[in-house]
Amino acid sequence: MTTKLMGQRVQRVEDQRFLRGQGRYVDDVAVENGTLHAAVLRSPHAHARIIDIDVSALLDMDGVHAVFTYDDLADFTPEMAEPLPLLIPHPALTHGRTQYALAKDEVNYVGEAIAFVVADDRYVAEDAVGQIVVDYEVLTPVVGIPTARAARNLVHDDIPGNVAAHFEQNVGDAQAAIAGAPHRLSLDLSIERSACMPMEGRGVVARWDRDLNRLQLWASTQTATGVRAAVAVKMGLDLGQVDVITPDVGGGFGVKINHPWPEDLLVPMAAKLLGRMVKFTEDRREHFISSAHERGQDQHIEVGFDDEGRILGLDVEFWHDHGAYTPYGLIVPIITSTQLLGPYKPQNYRVVFESLYTNTVIVTPYRGAGRPQGVFAMERTMDAIAQYLGKDRTQVRAVNFIRPDEFPFDHGLIFQDGRPLIYDSGDYPQSLEKIKALIGWDDFPALQAEMAAQGRRFGIGLACYVEGTGVGPYEGGHVHIETTGKVKVATGLTTQGQGHATVFAQLVADELGVKFEDVEVVTGDTRRMPYAVGTYASRAAVMSGSAIHLAAKRAKEKALKIAADALEADPDDLQIVDGVVSVKGSPGTSIDLGTVAVLSNPLRYAFDEKSKLATQFSVGHPDRPPVPRGEEPGLEGKDFYSPDRATFASGMHAAIVETSEDTAEITIHKYAVVHDCGHLINPMIVEGQIHGGVAQGIGGALYERMAYDDAGQLLNASFMDFLIPYVSEIPDGIAVDHLETPSPLNPLGIKGAGEAGVIPGSAVLAAAIEDAEKLPVTAMPISPSDLFTLRLEHTQ
Ligand code: MCN
User: Which residues form the Aldehyde oxidase/xanthine dehydrogenase a/b hammerhead domain (predicted)?
Assistant: First the structure.
């Protein structure tokens, strides 16, 4: 008997394959004999003019098939020689700039692609790269936000002040409200650059089919259709001539939404020109210096509040380190500026930011995308107010919450999608109660005192966030019932470990009334679903989940209609249980879905015993055409979902830490999460997402920083030097509790969950360390040596 699967902890169908090493990534794509391998010459300088590139040493090098520099690109197509697309333009981005597939005239960060070599294997390709001689005129680089702001040197000669964009939004009059408030505070905060580190780096394989005149591309991407569009435009092809297939993706975390990377274009170009399959797989060093980073921001906050801690005016000014180019427009700082408010409702708010160019790796969204910085600003402000007033930190938050009866809540701001920032639903007071219970907030002072008596420093922190998820524009679902009764589901967004094959199968099994194990899900293959957007912004559950649910409804309606015809019953009297359609109350009168699928195809073949041949005949009613007008053959349903606006998930994290007096080592003893993503499809998967996110948040708070020197060299571009937390750094048993405030905006009442775990990491750990040390923590990440320095600064 089929039971409802929505909300159940169904085991992930993907895991058997992954755990047995049967995952199939771009690098595993069966490559034909004769596949060529690519390597890239990357800039060793952060800022330099290219005077000359000499590739003559490669011309008769054994095993080298081609070398390309910028000057070769226009020979392929004029579009190839144009800059890469600026994906999300914004009116405030007055000085946007994107790079070329291969550097033209100048390089603006260490790692920027200069030449592309294709050879028999990667070893030969790398050796050949080493033989290219480039004559540079080295220029002074701009590294770090203060240097960019000082603007003594420019990243791009024609962009004054290194300013890509200046943006401001206002609600009420923040400055006047602050001036008139009973109490005022100001804070200066900063968060350093970090980056996501998927286990699988970027990768692409291309095959040009001369006979069919089309391109087949395997890409490790979060946006298969985005890659397809960019490749088609740059190669002068129709969209229909390009198939992009996304096999398993070993993590994306945002870095793989950038479409296209230079290699995404150069690999298929080479494949077409050379008539051979060509492959590129990024190595770890390349991931550090030539993919994307995020987070780097300096912030100045002024706040005015009353005796209760109620914020009367909030003025936030921040500077965003955008790296050398702006392919993703202003999306990261815009998100910081609009989602900083979290669950609170300051009556007067001004946010202003400057997005600054630096001679460092480009910045594009990394899981959480601008929100960790915004939450850091807001939650540090809340803690500062509580400390100033001598109040409990939870009390100050509670008086500023949007109340449950105030939804939908319009902040009076414009959200990142250009529409008004309206929260759909939530219950922040209840979340606060839950997190307090989960972490043991009220009991903590006694524990802290007990530990202090033993000479140990314990601290507790709390941070709240609200996250716009499930952004549009649309996503599609296709549900196809095979004649075997098995169900094939396709959606166009891609999957990087989120368990989509499981959750989408749950939704289809529920809606269609088939067995979970009979549903198979395909993602990220433009041959199966050519219209799609991609996996980012915690949107798959809301967008594809809704579309697949609607598509399953359509397939079901059709199945019931055909079955009703066959069973001579009314469709309303039918039910589907475990893949069998039957008359309610009369289970003997039934037909299985596979047979319904056969009936839906009016042409079918039978084996003729006499002639020993397959014969083709038509089925259908004698007095009706086999395919009624307006109907399509086949038992399938397709639908698209496009929401009016984003849905806002929310949550609260709390942590108990200990800081060592002797070594300044920071140990997390307890970490608790309360999360509200509306109705849960699969709580186990959501908890897995939260655990992974929390680990990344801890990494960002305590370990991970991109250490650039003044020359723009990344000093820690390997896992020997760039610390990511291992399982030993993540506390045992992260406690997770859920709240399900359904979204009224989509049919399943879902909100997104994929990024939430990472968002408040820096804010909550800064608060806990501050509480343990009784010292203001204003910069993250914070290492033991940073903590020592902080202690020294405050003893002088
Ligand atoms: N889910 C659910 N019930 C809900 C909401 C979500 O069961 N109410 C499930 C979803 O069905 C999905 C998972 O939780 O299986 C995450 O859902 P969602 O919030 O829709 O996020 P996406 O699937 O769109 O994933 C994107 C998100 C982002 S933006 C980043 S970055 C990220 C992340 O997910 N990168 C990841 N999680 C990651 N997890 C892994 N393993 N690898 C990455 O690269």
Answer: 20-140
